Amino acid sequence: MIPIVSIIVATHNVEYSIRECLKSLQQQTLQGIEVLIMNNGSSKGTALICEEFVSEDERFNLFNAQNLTLSEARNYGMQEAAGKYVAFVDGHDFVESTMYEKLVQRAEQKHADLVLCGYTKYWPETERKKQVKVNEALLTKPNPVNYYLTKHNEAYIVPWNKLFLRSIIMGERLYFDNHPFFEDVGFIAQYLSFAKKIAIINEPQYNFVQYEDMLMKNYSPSIAHSHAQTYAQLKQFFDKRQYRNVIEGLNLRLYIHRYHHVLLTTSNTRQVKSLERQIIRESKNFSQLPWNLRMMKPLVKMRVYPTFFRLVHKVKA
Predict the structure, then answer these.
(1) DSSP letter string over the chain?
(2) What is the pLDDT of residues 187-245, one digit of tens each?
């Protein structure tokens, strides 16, 4: 039987979480699913757990590979998918049992090409939970790509709280660009440009698990290359489309993300000052960004933003 939803699970050494992840998929109230486990050179423990689910449930399929990036694993999974819809799950997370039934129902009811749902951020060490809703402004905008590129939040960027039409992915030859940062930005922006109807379920259906050892604590030089690649990719894609004027707004957002990454992971004042100069040069595009980012403009110009940012981040922690 052809599955309704192909769920692509990227795994790499997640022995501590993969059982809960796969169990949550096995318990879906929507039976018409296939689970494509993209096992990227994991330890024996992770592989054995994956094999256990494959042996007991014919809807589960295991693909073993070596040295794949997250983007390559997802792209591999999309090539193997057979469902009408495609979804993504990360191996350290888990989903509610009704997630795909509700997403498919909403897609069919609204004739939607893309469905988004709310999610829960979960910190297992402290059992703290935070529910995140999708801003429904996305549905009221005449140009959702424009809104996405400049005013997106985490709920828009990530692929795992969404249901995609495989026919659009394959028909338009969409794929995740192969770099360690911002790989979701390009894929979803391009997909949105082909999606004629979007629907939302704000009830949290996905659990985004925040393990302490997964948080990025060290500076990664590859973020600059990823920024350049993402900007170039989208500038080329949207060059002759009506969204071209907001690409520079996105470019400023990527500079801000890099700036925050540097402030959180290193005390290198040279990098901080370099990014501040770039943000100031791009400051004409602040008007396109959300209000919380527009507020940082005078603080960056006065060179006091790092102190403000670190203080706020410390209070939140």
Answers:
(1) ---SEEEEEEESS-TTTHHHHHHHHHT-S---EEEEEEEES--HHHHHHHHHHHHH-TTEEEEEESS--HHHHHHHHHHH--SSEEEEEETT-EE-TTHHHHHHHHHHHHT-SEEEEEEEEEETTTTEEEEE---THHHH-S-HHHHHHHH--HHHH-STTEEEEHHHHHHTT----SSSSSHHHHHHHHHHHH-S-EEEEEEEEEEEE--GGGS--S--THHHHHHHHHHHHHHHHTTTSTTGGGHHHHHHHHHHHHHHHHHHH---HHHHHHHHHHHHHTGGGGGGS-HHHHTHHHHHHTT-HHHHHHHHHHHH-
(2) 999 999 899 999 999 899 999 998 765 555 677 888 999 999 999 989 888 876 666 67
Q: How confident is the model at residue 155 (pLDDT cuts 50, 70, 90)?
A: confident
